[in-house]
Inverse folding.
């Protein structure tokens, strides 16, 4: 059976959400950060030691986009991906890759600069703050052009790849989404899906906030630091 290793409050939420949307059988192994990075049991699974990890027979694989594609094609009959014959195929591909190719690095980079104590008035940091705003406006504008989901009318794995960065990730980099008026209802639509709710029930503590509102949520890193 497919095994999904999920570290709470991390990118591996995508894989649990995907399996719930697809309604496939899988064995969920849960971990907690220790105290901020992966616990040893998760580190031991791969050379990189990050979440997510999936196992299927002899296969052990990390990288969320690869895990998503693997599960869709090996266990989901291609559901939640769009085929080349679909009119929105290019949109699907573009937004699927935009998630971890641009958006997620855009947030992580700013998170790292902030946690290294770099002042936001620093020229490099300022440039990256502006770039992240550009990334977000790009999504916002696309959703505002009548697209309920990133690939168009259909909910797809491109949404599963993207929502983590716009919600849970905000606990590490306290992003204010108030200016992005189309992103906010999009996030509400996403978290109302039964598949998302099942992921939350199985994979997160019930008091962990959804982070779908505009104002910047509490920054976990700062909280962690003040405890240390
Ligand atoms: N590009 C990778 C990134 C994986 C990654 O960095 N995961 C984080 C969780 S959000 C992690 O495992 N951090 C703990 C650590 O680095 O020890 C993916 O998409 O799977």
């Amino acid at each position: 059976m497919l095994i999904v290793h999920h570290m709470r409050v991390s990118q591996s939420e995508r894989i649990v959400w995907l399996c719930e949307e697809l309604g496939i059988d899988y064995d969920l192994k849960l971990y907690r950060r220790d105290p901020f990075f992966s616990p040893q049991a998760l580190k031991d699974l791969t050379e990189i030691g990050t979440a997510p990890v999936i196992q299927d027979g002899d296969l052990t694989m990390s990288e969320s986009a690869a895990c998503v594609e693997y599960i869709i094609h090996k266990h989901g009959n291609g559901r939640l991906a769009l085929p080349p014959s679909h009119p929105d195929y290019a949109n699907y591909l573009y937004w699927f890759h935009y998630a971890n190719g641009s958006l997620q690095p855009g947030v992580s980079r700013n998170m790292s600069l902030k946690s290294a104590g770099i002042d936001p008035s620093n020229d490099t940091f300022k440039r990256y703050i502006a770039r992240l705003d550009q990334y977000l406006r790009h999504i916002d504008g696309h959703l505002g052009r009548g697209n309920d989901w990133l690939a168009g009318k259909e909910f797809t794995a491109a949404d599963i790849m993207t929502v983590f960065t716009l919600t849970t990730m905000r606990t590490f980099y306290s992003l204010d989404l108030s200016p992005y008026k189309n992103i906010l209802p999009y996030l509400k639509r996403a978290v109302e899906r039964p598949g998302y709710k099942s992921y939350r029930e199985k994979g997160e503590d019930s008091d962990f906030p959804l982070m779908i509102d505009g104002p910047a949520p509490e920054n976990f890193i700062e909280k962690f630091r003040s405890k240390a």
Q: What stands out?
A: Residues 3-75 form a domain with the Glutaredoxin fold (CATH 3.40.30.10). The CA atoms of residues 146 and 152 lie 8 Å apart. Residues 7, 10-11, 37-38, 49-52, 62-64, 100 surround glutathione (CB under 6 Å).
